[in-house]
Every structure is written in structure tokens, then in C-alpha cells.
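Long-time lurker. I teach an intro course on protein structure, and each term I like to show students one example going from raw sequence to a predicted 3D structure in C-alpha cell notation. This year I'd like something fresh instead of my usual example. Would anyone be willing to generate the C-alpha cells for the chain below so I can use it in lecture? Attribution to the forum is fine with me.
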Amino acid sequence: MSVCRPARTGRLPIDDGVEVFWEYVGDGTRPPVCLLNGLAMHTKAWYPFLPRLTPDYDVLLVDYPGQGESTSRDVPLSMPGLAGILHRLVDHLAIARLHIVGVSYGGFVALEFARLFQERLRTMTLSGVLLSEEQLFEMYEAISLRFYRAGPEAFELYTHYLYEKIFGEAFVAAIGRDQLEPMRERFYERYRHRVHSLVRLTEAQDPFFAALAANRPAYRAILTPTLVMPGLDDRVIAPAVQRKICGILPHTTWRPLAGSGHVAYLEQPDVFWPTLRRFIAEA
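-- Reply from a regular --
Happy to contribute to a lecture. Here you go:
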């Protein structure tokens, strides 16, 4: 499958000298779909999957502060702030409404965008995310932060731990561990000189979870049609935990993917992307 390239790119100025890098694929004549990065991603990571959408949709990509080509400063971040940046970008590009897809960390950004700006949404798709306080996830977050803060050697070790944890057995068996290693090395090289960005992005989750109870009525008021599509072998956020979202958001569709871990869009692309397209079309 050929790789698409963006028609437009830019840097959106944010407060205090921060610039957010964005890319837009398409000419503006088709409904836009925004693909929101996971924690370790950047816009270029989506390139191989763009042809699965572009026959019928434009695609918006964005690097959060600290990711990819966006400014990387050691300053606090917040989920509402990241959602606000996306809202400013949507305004900047004169997009009235869009479909939004949040995988892993991007799912938290998507949920905050829906809570604050649901009038700008057509649909929302979530994969590898939670909307409830969970002890095991808090432990996972805490150990990640300890690795980030423990220096270069510990961070390099952490990348091995992460790449063992996020994928399902079927995917690793299919591609082979030799192919997994270059992926891990690219992640390490991307962040080894700016681990502070991973710290700041991860810390932004704490006030998000602390405010869940207070924001629960606002989440229940999200009327956007939402697809929840977890991997059934996800060991970062168990499918049973992800399914709790369906008891909070009033208009959800549950479509778990067999044979996939935390990175369903990559591990099961021939199921994930057609399922997403059908959901968008039917919604």
C-alpha cells in the first residue's frame, strides 16, 4: 500500500513560545478525520495507514508539545490544555466538525476534547484508553515515571520493558522479535535527549484522573457517537477496564479486536481500519 503525504503542514504558535507541528492530508473537500498520537508517537507514524482513510476522508495529524517536530520544553502540561491546543488548531484550519480517533494517550486527549468541545465532533473512536481510576494503571504510570527520571541507562532499559508490554503475542510471533528491535531503537533515539517530554506528558494524566469524579456528569453528557475498539490481549489497559467507558458515555459501540494487544491499529490493521470506516459511515 502506497504512503500518502500531507498537502499542508504548519506550526501553530501557542503560549510562551511553544509551537505545535501539524500536517493535513487532503484538499478540504472530504470529511476530516483527526488521528491523535499515542505517547511515544509522532505524526509520521501514521503515514503507512493514511491510504486506508484517504479515498474518502481528509486526515489531520498533530504532534503534542514534546512530540515529533513540536516544541519540547520542560514545562507542565494538562489534558484540558492539550484538548485546547487541538481546538485552536481546528479553528485555525477552519474545520467546523471532524471525526476524532484517539489511541492510547491520544484517547485521553480525545475524551477531554469531547468533554469541552463536543459540538465540533462528528464521531469519536477510542482504543487502549480508560475513563476510570484503576490501581494497576496507576502503578504502570508510576513505574514509567521512575524509569524516565532515573537517567539514560534506566531509560534505555525501560524501552525494552515497554515494547514487551504493549504488543500482543500474535503480533510479535507474526513479525518476529528481530523486527521489533528497530522499532524500539527508534523510540529510544527519539526521546533519549528529551526524556523530560515523556515526564511532562505522563504527569498530565494525574490531574485528569483526579478530576474524573467531578467531571463525570460532563462525560455522561457527551452525545457524540463513540466507538470503543480495544485489543483483547491488551496488557497495558485490560479490555474489561476499557469497557467501563461504555457505562459512562451514552452512545458507545463496543468492538474488541481478537489477536491484538495495546496497539490495535498497528497489530490488526485489516480489521481496525475497515471497522473504523464502517462506524464513521454508519454514524
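Some talking points for your students: The mean pLDDT is 96. The first strand starts at residue 8 and ends at 13.
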